[in-house]
Specification:
single chain, 5-stranded parallel beta sheet, 252 residues, Rossmann fold, alpha/beta
């Protein structure tokens, strides 16, 4: 067994995890947890940059994030599906890395790869626990699949305070120079896209501030779980750190 991860985040393309939930990966890494990212596609349909450029940017971002594991798979960009071959590939990764928690994009989104990734990862996470699916690996089912918002937002199940990690998160995002606003059009592309507009990264910061405000901190990242969360000890669950996480304006 090569390694066991505490948390494994799946993204449809290189840069998705970095954009939408990498502050949490940084924070967990600082706490001593092992974290990783698996990007399903090489982003070959992207308007700007090339798969080779995206791969180098992915490597740079992984170093900034301090990941224990990172990998780009070779599923077809624009055609991520939950077919048997894809599910077996994800099952193999889950059984190899044995993550406790998996992150996946929210199942409602404008990009087909995003919502297909949500379904693929959810199904594979369950099937990875079935011993009769033979991959010459020990069966493993993660404790929980947790979803992060991409384009469409949701009412979160919980919000993580990533204030301390926000500068590093933005540094990791800016590693994707080909995708975001940059004056070097000769190398990175002349055609503008939605995310290459200067305002896009400002929107990422604004979202983090809004989620942070909801728990009384500067920056936050939101997550959603499908299941009702079990709490056996409300006193411990709502520990002293919760005293300072009332929404701004809600304190008496």
């Amino acid at each position: 067994m090569a390694m066991e991860l505490d948390l494994l985040a799946f993204g449809p393309h290189p840069d998705d995890v970095e954009l939408f939930c990498s502050g949490t990966l940084i924070k967990l890494g600082l706490k001593g947890y092992s974290t990783g990212i698996a990007a399903l596609t090489r982003g070959e349909l992207g308007t700007r940059g090339t798969p080779d450029i995206r791969s180098k940017e992915f490597e740079q971002a992984a170093e900034i994030l301090g990941l224990s594991y990172h990998r780009i798979l070779d599923m077809p960009d624009g055609d991520v599906t939950s077919d048997r071959k894809s599910k077996i590939e994800i099952i193999r990764i889950i059984r190899d890395l044995r993550p406790k928690i998996i992150l996946a994009p929210y199942w409602e989104d404008r990009h087909p790869d995003h919502y297909h990734t949500a379904r693929l990862v959810q199904e594979a996470a369950f099937l990875a626990g079935l011993t009769k699916i033979a991959t010459e690996q020990e069966a493993h089912r993660p404790r929980r699949v947790v979803y992060y918002p991409c384009w469409f937002e949701f009412e979160p199940s919980f919000v993580v305070d990533v204030t301390e990690c926000h500068p590093r998160k933005m540094e990791a995002i800016r590693a994707y120079r080909s995708q975001f606003h940059h004056l070097d059009k000769e190398n990175y592309g002349r055609q503008e896209t939605l995310i290459s507009q200067p305002e896009f990264l400002e929107n990422i910061v604004t979202r983090a501030k809004r989620y942070g405000s909801s728990i009384g901190v500067a920056y936050g990242e939101a997550f959603l779980v499908r299941e009702t969360l079990r709490v056996d000890d409300p006193i411990e669950f709502f520990g002293p750190e919760c005293v300072n996480t009332l929404p701004l304006g809600a304190r008496g």
